[in-house]
Recover the amino acids of this structure.
């Protein structure tokens, strides 16, 4: 569910009339319809707004939107949505992330790596975000929504950034037919320690470590061509990731612990458009593995741990659609074959370098495992009453070799009673499949680690959404409401001295979002407020690891040679994770916090950024007794050529 206002809140339209805005098309739901009419809640962030806000990476930008929450544990930046956190070792898994239409997830655990290890944010033309149940089109893992990132077609440049904490180099060259980008990022921090609410804080109170291992590379190449009336596109994405493990459940304040991964994708798509008919087919190959320099320290002087795993996956789909004046129909079929070389954990002796294979847990399979999925889906869009009413129905059936049959659907309705008033309603069901890392895991630590559960089921969500939008002059206002019911939510329960993932919990609740944007005396102003209360059945507190209230604002002013931007965010207190509550023996909360950021842009080339201006000390919820410290004041300079 969406209104035009929900889009307008996040865009800068000084050079775009309302008539032009109403003609903007989006494709995240595979429906070729203008943004004002799509019967789903969609947020679109255009290039102008991306350039204005000056965020370093994609998660920081998305977290500024109402309903999203960012947790940065110094390993990855995780994005969660509308009251439901992704959970332990689940980085940005409640939404499906696409790059020009193809998924970028790391198949071993389903995580999406979209921080500094992703393509340069400068190469992004537009971001389309579908909130709500999206499995009826995209299948598993589109539990709470879809994020589709569209790259620029005309761009060339080089950007460098330096601060005591970062070193970034980004190069990009895009024409209409060819796209190339490369990014390198390195991060350094000193005197890091656990946040004060951590249940194990006293054990590590005097320990401070440095973050000195984060070093990431990303290469992206795209080719768009045409042959005999067929449109052909191919993309290559390669990520080489090296991350410190300071505040994860793997390793706690061990500055030599290193996560080392490769995630690569090769995509090719062919499409043909006829008069009222379109045919589209795509193929995606994914390869991922961990590197030999990975090292997981567990606080033992004589040895450390090392993992070994890999995957090869083959995915494809075929779609046929017809588009008439008042009717659009889509029918599709997709498949995936995932070949996983399941994880092995080794104990490595420091002196000799000898590797000893740790024990395996039965009845989990050993060696290679094949996971198959086949899906059939359809979508129907009907335009009624001189196109004042749009209705969309989509339905999907998945057959998975592990989770068996899954059915998902979505019903949407949009109504435009006036030219400046919009109403949207939306209801649907989605699911998230369990990952190989939980089904067939191998513990790293002897105690307080995750043991496998091959009997896990998929998580289901049912969501109802409604939205109202109103436009008058330079002021844009939206109000959104949603109700969520989630079944089979995976949580970790004690099993001996370890934890086992189980489908135990049912969660229900509601939330609302209010946003307003206006322009006064040449100042651009935006503010948004979000509230959510989703709780477990039989519990009186909101869900763990997600704030109940959030507010975001900015004020911007552009002068002749300088542009000034001030951003503010407020995060209410956050309930701790369930694993930390078990260690603490009682529920507790991470305190609320607020942060101011200031950006100065000189001559559209030099950007001086001061993040957390007042050096406010805050924290994020973590796992295994750890809560994560937020970042203090950071000053950096970014220069772009040309």
């Amino acid at each position: 569910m969406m209104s035009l206002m929900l889009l307008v809140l996040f865009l800068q339209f000084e050079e775009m009339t309302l008539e032009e805005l109403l003609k903007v098309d989006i494709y995240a739901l595979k429906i070729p319809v203008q943004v004002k009419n799509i019967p789903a809640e969609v947020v679109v962030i255009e290039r102008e707004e991306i350039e204005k806000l000056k965020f370093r990476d994609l998660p920081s930008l998305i977290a500024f939107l109402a309903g999203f929450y960012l947790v940065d544990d110094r390993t990855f930046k995780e994005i969660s949505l509308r009251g439901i956190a992704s959970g332990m070792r689940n980085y940005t898994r409640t939404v499906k992330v696409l790059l020009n239409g193809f998924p970028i997830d790391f198949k071993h655990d389903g995580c999406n790596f979209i921080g500094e290890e992703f393509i340069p944010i400068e190469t992004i033309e537009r971001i389309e975000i579908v909130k709500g149940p999206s499995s009826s089109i995209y299948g598993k893992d589109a539990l709470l929504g879809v994020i589709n990132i569209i790259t620029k077609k005309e761009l060339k440049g080089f950007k460098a950034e330096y601060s005591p904490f970062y070193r970034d180099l980004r190069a990009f060259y895009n024409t209409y037919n060819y796209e190339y980008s490369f990014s390198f990022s390195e991060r350094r921090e000193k005197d890091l320690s656990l946040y004060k609410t951590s249940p194990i804080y006293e054990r590590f109170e005097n320990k401070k470590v440095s973050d000195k291992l984060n070093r990431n590379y990303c290469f992206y190449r795209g080719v768009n061509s045409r042959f005999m009336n067929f449109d052909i596109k191919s993309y290559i994405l390669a990520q080489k990731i090296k991350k410190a493990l300071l505040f994860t459940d793997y390793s706690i304040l061990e500055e030599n612990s290193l996560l080392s991964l490769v995630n690569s994708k090769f995509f090719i798509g062919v499409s043909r458009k006829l008069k009222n008919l379109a045919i589209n087919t795509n193929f995606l190959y994914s390869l991922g593995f961990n590197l030999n320099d990975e090292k997981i320290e567990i606080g033992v002087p004589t040895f450390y741990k090392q993992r070994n795993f890999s995957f090869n996956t083959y995915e494809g789909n075929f779609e046929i659609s017809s588009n008439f004046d008042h009717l659009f129909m889509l029918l599709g079929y997709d498949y995936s074959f995932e070949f996983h070389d399941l994880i092995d954990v080794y104990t490595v002796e420091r002196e000799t370098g000898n590797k000893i294979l740790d024990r395996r847990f039965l009845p989990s399979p050993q060696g290679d495992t094949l996971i198959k999925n086949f899906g059939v889906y359809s979508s129907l869009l009907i335009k009624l009453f001189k196109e004042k009413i749009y209705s969309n129905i989509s339905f999907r059936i998945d057959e998975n070799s592990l989770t068996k049959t899954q059915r998902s659907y979505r019903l949407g309705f949009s109504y435009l009673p006036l030219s400046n008033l919009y109403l949207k309603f939306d209801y649907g069901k989605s699911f998230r499949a369990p990952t190989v890392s939980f089904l067939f895991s191998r513990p790293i630590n002897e105690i307080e680690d995750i043991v496998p559960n091959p009997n896990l089921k998929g998580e289901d969500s049912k969501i109802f959404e409604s939205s109202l939008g109103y436009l008058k002059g330079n002021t844009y206002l939206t109000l959104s409401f949603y109700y969520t019911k989630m079944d089979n939510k995976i949580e970790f329960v004690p099993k001996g001295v370890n934890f086992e993932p189980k489908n135990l919990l049912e969660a229900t609740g509601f939330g609302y979002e209010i946003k307003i944007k206006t322009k006064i005396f040449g100042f651009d102003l935006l503010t948004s407020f979000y509230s959510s209360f989703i709780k477990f059945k039989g519990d009186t507190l909101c869900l763990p690891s997600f704030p109940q209230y959030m507010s975001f604002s900015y004020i911007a002013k552009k002068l002749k040679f300088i542009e000034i931007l001030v951003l503010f965010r407020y995060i209410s207190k956050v309930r701790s994770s369930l694993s930390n509550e078990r260690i603490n023996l009682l529920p507790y909360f991470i305190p609320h916090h607020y942060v101011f950021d200031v950006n100065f842009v000189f001559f559209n080339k030099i950007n001086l950024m001061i993040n957390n201006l007042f050096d406010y000390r805050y924290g994020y919820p973590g796992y295994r007794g750890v809560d994560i410290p937020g970042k203090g004041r950071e000053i950096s300079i970014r220069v772009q050529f040309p």
